[in-house]
Specification:
Blueprint (H helix, E strand, L loop, with lengths): L11 H4 L13 E7 L3 H4 L3 H11 L4 E7 L3 H10 L17 E5 L6 H10 L15 E5 L15 E3 L6 H14 L5 H9 L4 E2 L4 E5 L5 E6 L7 E2 L27 E4 L1 E2 L9 H5 L4 E2 L2 H15 L3 E5 L9 H11 L6 E3 L10 H8 L6 E6 L3 H6 L6 H13 L4 E8 L6 H20 L5 E8 L16 H17 L3 E4 L2 H11 L5 H10 L13 H11 L21 E2 L4 H12 L41 H4 L5 E9 L8 H14 L16 E3 L8 E11 L4 H11 L4 E9 L10 E9 L5 H13 L4 E6 L2 E6 H4 E7 L2 E6 L4 H9 L10 E9 L3
Parallel strand pairs: 1-2, 1-3, 3-4, 4-5, 9-19, 10-13, 13-14, 15-16, 16-17, 17-18, 22-29
Antiparallel strand pairs: 5-6, 7-8, 11-12, 20-22, 20-23, 21-22, 24-28, 24-29, 25-26, 27-28
The structure holds iron/sulfur cluster.
The site of iron/sulfur cluster has 11 residues, from loops.
Protein name: Radical SAM-linked protein/radical SAM family uncharacterized protein
GO molecular function: catalytic activity; iron-sulfur cluster binding
InterPro entries: CHP03960_rSAM (IPR023862), DUF2344 (IPR018768), Elp3/MiaA/NifB-like_rSAM (IPR006638), Radical_SAM_N2 (IPR045784), rSAM (IPR007197), rSAM_horseshoe (IPR023404), rSAM_sf (IPR058240)
Length: about 850
């Protein structure tokens, strides 16, 4: 049964068919790349984009996407007994060969189990034989996947670019082998570098719940070391990613400028599990940006890494990008800037592009606390940075802190609002007004960090400290946000959890848990019920661990020596700094072998002159106005008007149509639609005008049709004078065909005659609290029945309203009606 997309919020989440998506109806191996969150969150994830491109580039292998259905769609799937399927070919997940889940966040665990249930796949690996897809997890969550271990067949630790190809080839070969034995497949998988097969380890516990032993069950397979990609310069990168129809969380070109960070912030798991530092060259970055902008039509670039300001060539790279995109149409965002990297020159470069807000992360309020966490920035650094930012014209700075860090005292906590107030005062010093928004989250100790042994605040302690901060912030007139204490509590339980938590997970999902990372869906009572049903105390997992305790993830090797982590823990308590090994001596964390694996830092360089003379900027501008008629059919009919504008904005860029832009701070492509298109209505008669440079109508039609997705097509293109009247006031009437499945043709005929025999049929609408009246009879030019179809021509008014007026059908009864806009009648122009 097809999905009813009109009855759910944001149908574009489930449509598929976006530009850049790849559908391979025939494939030897079908892999579902599953992101356990809603579409707009998952689509923003770079890792999944990378794997999608790598796998789809292989012959015979199809990589498809699946996201967690939002509760409205989940209800529909359950009610209609429809199995969760991929977006590309609607293949039910149970019929794929591999399902690869991205493990980004502890609380998305419930979404994983929910998705398996929606796909009618047995949850536990032990209950799935070779006829079921192989279930694999990857991403940061794979460094302690123990709470998920019984549900997964394998996990991949570390960089995925090479490993996914090996895994895919291995499974493909196994599929065609004579003995399709799952155990054999797992054996083979365990031989792939970085692959962890949890069923090959047996965990034993002490009576008090601590792990007593992790027994390897396969000779020689005693620990799993993460996979390393020594160099990202030549690694595959998605320069032609999928362009979503709807707005996603990070709707822009994302270029990874570096992987790994060697700053050594002691709380930061990413800083340890992604080591060593591997930078991409500015030449390669520029090339990727150019290709990606061309292929996607995006107008924003995001330079990604754990700390983009640390990228060795950030200054020259920004200068080059600014020069290349001096027309202001492309914005550049740097989501992760470290306070110490904010030189006046860098701020000056950033100032030249759109100001998308500035976030600084001092992480802790006091100098002492920052020494404990090895943050390596002083109050003076922060205040100078803030002064420069305000002086450059920003009006608002977001400050990000953590509370509950190891050894935190009341004075350390008090220092957060005090520091934030000083930052705000910098705005006045810069000669203007400025805001500070303070965000404080609760520290959650993470595996593979020096703080993995430390305790986490209890729920009550967290709430008390949040109340304290709230009062202090209010007194200082600072905007303050904090993370929900209950979410941090549960995040902490699962971050350092063991396999026994699998029962709790399964239970809480049975009780209805899903989207637990979203405040509005998280329910602490439901979780406590699940813990109580399983006889486990969640608070026990927040405790301090003895440094000689066997940790549930000790057999998983992130490359960092445990002795190094212990030394770092001692140094934290001694408030001693550990220098960044990119600039100074190696601190012997254990990751590098200094042959294949070492920090790869690109050489500092002067400003590239590649883009200094932007020829385009000096070109004489030719203006032409093209009038296009286009169709929208199939799933494209579910797009909102804004989503359609977005689609054209991307398509003109991808198709190389020289679209002209409006002037001003936020230039927009100059096209205008005759009417706002209606969601759910198929059409052969949508009209738009676009202003372009040197390109004629035939060429524009061909260029656009080459890149537009299925379901949308330019049918006609003509050129009109630049000053031609806009289309909207020229519309006289619109023709529609309404198909009413199963409707009695004779009755319909009679109702048409009856309706046309009336002089008037007044509809009263309520719109934004205002009453509107419209005489539908007077607006109806033509009306006839053709079998179970209505053919009608109407001036003002909606086709569905007229259908209801003619037939007397109620909105619910009209849900199955298919509306097609067949043509538009214009006054002569
Ligand atoms: S081994 Fe040394 S150089 Fe390599 S990441 Fe660790 S501390 Fe830095």
């Amino acid at each position: 049964m097809p999905l009813d997309l009109l009855s759910v919020e944001k149908p574009a989440r489930y449509m598929g068919g976006e530009m850049g998506s790849v559908a391979k109806p025939k494939a030897d191996l079908r892999i579902a790349l599953a992101f356990p969150d809603v579409y707009e969150v998952g689509m923003s994830h770079l890792g999944l984009r990378i794997l999608y491109q790598i796998l789809n580039a292989l012959d015979g292998i199809a990589a498809e996407r699946v996201y967690t259905p939002w509760p409205d769609m989940a209800a529909q799937l359950a009610a209609e007994q429809i199995a969760l399927a991929t977006l590309e070919t609607s293949t039910p997940l149970a019929e794929t060969d591999i399902i690869g889940f991205t493990l980004q966040y502890e609380l998305s665990c419930t979404n994983i189990l929910t998705m398996l249930r929606q796909a009618a796949i047995p949850l536990r690996s032990a209950d799935r034989d070779q006829s079921w897809p192989l279930i694999i997890g990857g991403g940061p969550g794979a460094y302690n996947p123990e709470p998920l271990a019984p549900f997964f067949d394998a996990f991949l630790l570390g960089d995925g670019e090479e490993a996914v190809i090996e895994i895919a080839n291995l499974v493909r070969d196994w599929k065609t082998s004579d003995s399709r034995n799952k155990q054999e497949l797992l054996e083979k998988l365990s031989a792939v570098d970085g692959v962890y097969v949890p069923s090959f380890f047996k965990v034993e516990y002490h009576a008090d719940g601590r792990v007593a032993a992790v027994q390897p069950l396969k000779p020689g397979y005693t620990a799993v070391r993460r996979r390393f990609l020594p160099d990202i310069e030549s690694a595959a990168f998605p320069d032609s990613p999928i362009i979503p129809f709807m707005k996603t969380i990070h709707d822009r070109v994302a270029i990874e400028v570096a992987r790994g960070c060697t700053r050594g912030c002691r709380f930061c798991q990413a800083g340890y599990i992604y080591r060593p530092l591997r930078e991409r060259s500015p030449q390669r970055i520029s090339q990727l940006i150019e290709t990606s902008l061309k292929n996607t039509g995006y107008e924003e670039i995001s330079l990604l890494s754990l700390s983009t300001g640390d990228y060795s060539c950030i200054g020259p790279l920004l200068q080059e990008l600014m020069a290349r995109h001096a027309n202001g149409r492309v914005a550049i965002s740097l989501p992760s800037l470290r306070v110490g990297t904010l030189t006046a020159g860098l701020i000056d470069e950033i100032r030249k592009v759109r100001k998308t807000g500035f976030t600084l992360a001092p992480e802790a309020g006091s100098e002492r606390m920052r020494r404990v966490i090895n943050k390596g920035i002083t109050e003076q650094d922060l205040l100078e940075g803030a002064l420069n930012i305000y002086a450059a014209g920003w009006r608002s700075i977001k400050l990000y802190f953590m509370m509950g860090l190891p050894t935190e005292t009341r004075e350390d906590l008090q220092a957060i609002p005090e520091l934030a107030r000083q930052v705000k005062n910098q705005a006045r010093r810069s000669g203007g007004q400025g805001e500070v928004n303070v965000a404080v989250s609760t520290f959650v100790p993470k595996p593979h960090t020096p703080f993995q042994w430390q305790r986490q605040l209890s729920l009550d302690e967290t709430r008390e400290r949040q109340r304290f901060l709230k009062d202090e912030m209010r007194r200082r007139k600072l905007n303050f946000k904090y993370q929900d204490a209950e979410l941090s509590f549960m995040e902490g339980v699962f971050a350092r959890g063991d396999r026994r938590l699998a029962d709790v997970l399964q239970r809480v999902v049975e009780l209805g848990a899903c989207f637990d990372g979203w405040n509005e869906h998280f329910s602490l009572p439901r979780w406590l019920q699940a813990f109580s049903d399983c006889g486990i105390d969640p608070a026990w997992y927040l405790r301090e661990r003895s440094t000689d305790e066997l940790l549930p993830w000790d057999h998983l090797d992130a490359g960092i020596e445990k002795t190094f982590l212990l030394k770092e823990l001692e140094r934290a308590h001694a408030e001693a700094a550990t220098p960044d090994c990119r600039f100074g001596a190696c601190s012997n964390c254990g990751v590098c072998d200094f042959k294949r694996l070492a920090n790869r830092v690109v050489a500092q360089q002067e400003q590239s002159d590649a883009a200094q003379n932007d020829e385009k900027a000096t070109q004489e501008i030719i203006q032409r106005r093209l009038r296009l008629r286009f169709s929208k059919t199939d799933n494209i009919r579910y797009l909102s008007h804004l989503e359609l504008i977005n689609l054209f904005t991307r398509a003109v860029q991808r198709g190389g149509v020289p679209i002209l832009y409006s002037q001003g701070f936020h230039p927009h492509p100059r096209f205008s639609f005759a009417t706002a298109t209606s969601v759910g209505v198929e059409s052969q008669a949508e009209y738009m005008d676009m202003f372009v440079g040197a390109m004629g109508p035939d060429e524009a039609l061909a260029c656009l049709n080459q890149v537009l997705p299925d379901g949308i097509s330019i049918l006609e293109a003509t050129e009109v004078p630049l000053k031609a009247e806009s289309l909207s006031p020229l519309i006289e009437a619109t023709r529609y065909r309404i198909t009413l499945p199963g409707y009695d043709p004779e009755l319909l005929q009679k109702q048409c005659v009856q309706f046309m025999a009336q002089d008037s049929w007044v509809l009263v609408r309520q719109k934004k609290g205002q009453q509107q009246t419209i005489d539908l009879r007077q607006e109806t030019r033509e009306l006839s029945a053709n079998g179970s179809c209505l053919e009608l021509t109407i001036g003002r008014g909606k086709a569905i309203e007229l259908t209801a007026a003619v037939t007397g059908l109620l909105p619910d009864e009209l849900k199955t009606a298919q509306i097609q806009k067949t043509s538009v009648i214009f006054v002569a122009y």
